[in-house]
Amino acid sequence: MTARIGVVTFPGSLDDRDTQRAIRLAGAEPVALWHKDKDLKQVDAVVLCGGFSYGDYLRAGAIARFSPVMETVIEQAKSGMPVLGICNGFQILTEAHLLPGGMLGNDHLHFICRDQKLRVENAETAWTVDYEAGQEINIPLKNMDGRYVADERTLDMLEAEGRVAFRYLDFNPNGSMRDIAGISNEAGNVVGLMPHPEHAVEPLIGTGRTDGLPFFTSILKKLVNV
């Protein structure tokens, strides 16, 4: 029986179908989840996809964090369910306090869309085990509020505990502190990042590479080994 991975759609989500396709290409069954439903339909993991949930009113992810589905996602994540937040999903995870820190507008005050080089810093989370620590990958990036910020104590904690999952290389596209592109929670089951791995899963689209596919094969490997 294949793993079932839920993809939450909020009003303003853009990349739910792309994420479902990436999951399918990895060999799992994508399950559509609606923001108003608390029922997660017995999925094994959840992805919060990119977009502009609720138009990014108040702050990016601030309203989506209170959607009915998030009540169950927060509860299950704290119990160990793997959760991946991509771009707006990362913003929602910080607003829900499943990940520390927060997201602010890009330091150059413009929307940015580019192929972005990253370095894998932690290859031991539920979503990164098919990478190698130190591996350099190229993943599409598109955001307006992608600047990761946290106080120095939190940043030092993330560094000391190996919870910086990805770091920008060559160019910091949004002013994120310490070039942080993605982080994990202490248990490693919750990961958030600003770049979009679902746009780099087959040679025809995105970067023309498949550097994003290991996110989705990683979680399959993790679920099989549970």
Please describe the topology of this protein.
Blueprint (H helix, E strand, L loop, with lengths): L3 E6 L6 H11 L2 E6 L10 E4 L19 H11 L4 E4 L1 H8 L6 E3 L7 E9 L15 E8 L3 E3 L2 H9 L3 E5 L11 E5 L5 E4 L19 H13 L1
Parallel strand pairs: 1-2, 1-3, 3-4, 4-11
Antiparallel strand pairs: 5-8, 6-7, 6-9, 9-10, 10-11
Helix pairs in contact: 1-5
Description of the molecule:
This is Phosphoribosylformylglycinamidine synthase subunit PurQ. Its main location: cytoplasm. Part of the FGAM synthase complex composed of 1 PurL, 1 PurQ and 2 PurS subunits. The protein is an alpha/beta fold. The chain has helices at 16-26, 68-78, 88-95, 152-160, 213-225, and strands at 4-9, 29-34, 45-48, 83-86, 102-104, 112-120, 136-143, 147-149, 164-168, 180-184, 190-193. The strands form 2 sheets. Strands 2-1-3-4-11-10-9-6-7 form a 9-stranded mixed beta sheet, with helices on both faces. A two-stranded antiparallel ribbon has the order 5-8. Strand 1, helix 1 and strand 2 (29-34) form a beta-alpha-beta unit. The longest helix has 13 residues, at 213-225.
Provide a compact summary of the structure.
This protein is α/β, with parallel strands linked by helices. The chain contains five helices and eleven strands, in the order E-H-E-E-H-E-H-E-E-E-E-H-E-E-E-H. Strand 10 and strand 11 form a beta hairpin.
